[in-house]
Design goal:
Two copies of one chain form a homodimer. With 211 residues, chain A is mostly helical. Helices cover 79% and strands 0% of the residues of chain A. Chain A has seven helices and no strands. The model of chain A has no long low-confidence stretch (mean pLDDT 96). Chains A and B meet through helix 1, helix 2, helix 3, helix 5 and helix 7 of A and helix 1, helix 2, helix 3, helix 5 and helix 7 of B.
Chain lengths: 211, 211
């Protein structure tokens, strides 16, 4: 894709996602789920800020909206960063491996590109985990007529978080440097703790609806 | 939005999702999560069909790919249908309620529009549940180098399913007709059973990765 993700049409993007082309793939989907979750947090916030009857919640909800807008922008940027990191990683596998010097240089390049790809997945997971937290913070502090959208925001962010987590897992598997691997694994696991928080948001909304 | 969803840019669509405008909202996000899941199922299938080493799986995987392509098209159509059903429901609330005849006609119109909005959410849930089943059927029968994308497909479809389920719940809450309510509730619950299947797909992939 030559266009920035922001300017791509939904149809063309989904076509590319479904094709055998290496990117966009699971990383792009993780970032997009996160962006949708952030957008829905902002929607619930905007429909609360616009109503005088929820004035007591406006200071909190305005902060939530602003952070959700930043996270959405960030998530869309991460779609492109994920594709770049993936392409860069694929390019390292095509490096020459004739001489011992070639092999050493190739191994170093693969390692660096794998770390970079993992870091992008962790950035997506971090953004998704934060969206879960924002959705949670809207429970009982926002316009109840859009309470179901808090659940959809949380469910989307959980998908982004779980997806980014699996993408990080598969890159971490091939890393041999124990220190780096331990540090990155700990980061992924820290964000992944928010999966259960996100599921609890969905459950809380269903309970409030009486479902 | 005047453009078909397919032709909308990702940036404009996310802007609309995050705005205080009533649609697109949670229903559109549910359908988009489902479409992303279907696209990733197709991607895994396409990257399996293209490799002779998985020839034994080609008949199954070709069927999966074709059904995933249909489900993706259907999910994108459901984004628009959800917006139409939502707008139609909102319009019924603005019907006159001066005379008793007005009130009776308005109540009938609200009921019909609520049933229709619920049916669209159930259609999204049905498509998402089917995507979960397709993702599950690819485990052990597809190119292992894209196994993580099966997990992302399942996580996206679960988000679509849970989101559509909550959207159905909130509409079902206001329905008074016990027979219709019972029938539609049973349909939602039947699809929702696939949530745990989808989560199991993510767990199975993580186990295979060794995470």
């Amino acid at each position: 894709m030559t266009k920035p993700t922001h300017d791509e049409t939904i149809g063309a993007w989904l076509d590319a996602l479904g094709s055998a082309a290496p990117a966009p793939g699971g990383g792009a989907a993780a970032a997009m789920s996160t962006a949708m979750g952030a957008a829905l947090v902002a929607m619930v916030a905007n429909l609360t800020i616009g109503r005088q009857s929820y004035a007591e919640h406006h200071p909190h909800v305005t902060r939530v909206r602003d952070e959700a807008d930043e996270l959405r922008t960030r998530a869309v940027e991460l779609v492109a960063q994920d594709a770049e990191a993936f392409d860069a990683l694929m390019a390292t596998f095509r490096l020459p491996k004739v001489t011992d010097a070639d092999k050493a240089a190739r191994a170093t390049a693969i390692r660096a590109a794998t770390v970079r790809a993992t870091e992008v997945s962790i950035d997506i997971a971090a953004a998704a985990a934060r969206v879960v937290g924002l959705a949670e913070s809207l429970l009982g502090r926002s316009n109840p007529s859009v309470v179901s959208d808090i659940a959809v925001a949380a469910a989307s962010a959980v998908a982004g978080l779980e997806s980014a987590g699996v993408n990080a897992d598969i890159n971490l598997r091939s890393l041999r440097d124990v220190d780096v691997k331990t540090r990155l694994t700990a980061e992924v696991e820290r964000h992944r703790l928010q999966v259960s928080a996100g599921r609890s948001v969905v459950d809380a909304v269903r309970k409030e609806i009486g479902a």
